[in-house]
Write a structure and sequence with these properties.
Elements (H helix, E strand, L loop, with lengths): L9 E10 L5 H6 L5 E11 L5 E10 L2 H12 L4 E4 L1
Antiparallel strand pairs: 1-3, 1-4, 2-3
């Protein structure tokens, strides 16, 4: 498989899956402060059993350093199960 190089700036679309019992809307929104949001953080849906809630957000990333900073901020969100 050939290596693919990202060409910045890029718009990254994220879906965060959060454990509903550990949900902290303020912390979720705070992790995106200082980033160039194309689409704001928005709750999308709950899982069928109600255990998880998904949030969507789109962020314009001017360079790799910003992308890495965003990845670290997302990883620190309380209750994060995964980020797609």
């Amino acid at each position: 498989m050939d290596s693919v190089e990202l060409k910045f700036p890029v718009v990254a679309h994220h879906r965060l899956i959060i454990v509903a019992a550990e949900r902290d809307d303020a912390a979720i929104k705070a992790c995106f402060e200082g980033f160039d949001l194309v689409e704001p953080v928005a709750e999308q849906r709950a899982s069928a059993g109600g255990k998880y809630i998904s949030y969507g957000v789109s962020v314009r990333l001017p360079d790799r350093a910003t992308m890495e900073r965003l990845d670290k901020a997302i990883a620190a969100v309380p209750g994060l199960k995964m980020c797609l």
